[in-house]
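Appendix B, example 12.
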Amino acid sequence: MSGPDESSLVRSYVITGGRAQPSRTDVDVITLIKATASKELLHRLNREKRNIVELCRGGALMTVAEAAGYLNLSVALTKVLVADLIDAQLITTRTAPSSPAADRTLLEEVLNGLRARL
């Protein structure tokens, strides 16, 4: 398995201004994001930030990891860019809902049911 090529590392460094971590806002890969910026503000952004905002427009929530995947960017790079967009109030976030711990008995019943079908 080969690592990232040198040009992509340099490009990421330039895009984030040399930062590997978000400056102020902490962003998780499962943080849900939604664009709030108007089209008039997009011309001020670099291409990657503009792509994130455009991807998150239209009301649908998307995780940071999904945005990274759709835009073919590393998750680390996307987290830094999303944090910048949050700080600039161009996107809003919402934490992913947490699910309650599953009941062990219920899980065993589901597993037994699946085994019976196979």
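DSSP finds five helices and three strands in the chain. The beta strands are 32-35, 62-63, 91-94.
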